[in-house]
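Handover notes (outgoing to incoming on-call)

Open items:
1. Ferredoxin, 2Fe-2S: sequence verified, structure written out, both below. Nothing else pending on this one.
2. Nothing else urgent.
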Amino acid sequence: MGQITFIEHNGAAHVVEIAAGQTLMQTAVDNGIPGIDADCGGACACGTCHVIVDHDRIQATGNNETTVLTEVSYEPAEFTD
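Ferredoxin, 2Fe-2S structure tokens:
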């Protein structure tokens, strides 16, 4: 079991427990995190859930990851600085 922090647009932070293998969306829904509507139930069809990861917390992509991202039409604009 780990912890994750959801931060709302207004800066309010919610620290919750997350089980191994559980999705961020399901964890947010289970914990009543405001703004995570999950209207499609996690099918990636509605666009009501967004994950923004602080650039300082991710590693540079390796060759394998770069290949996969290219194959799935990755757009760098999907990440924020």
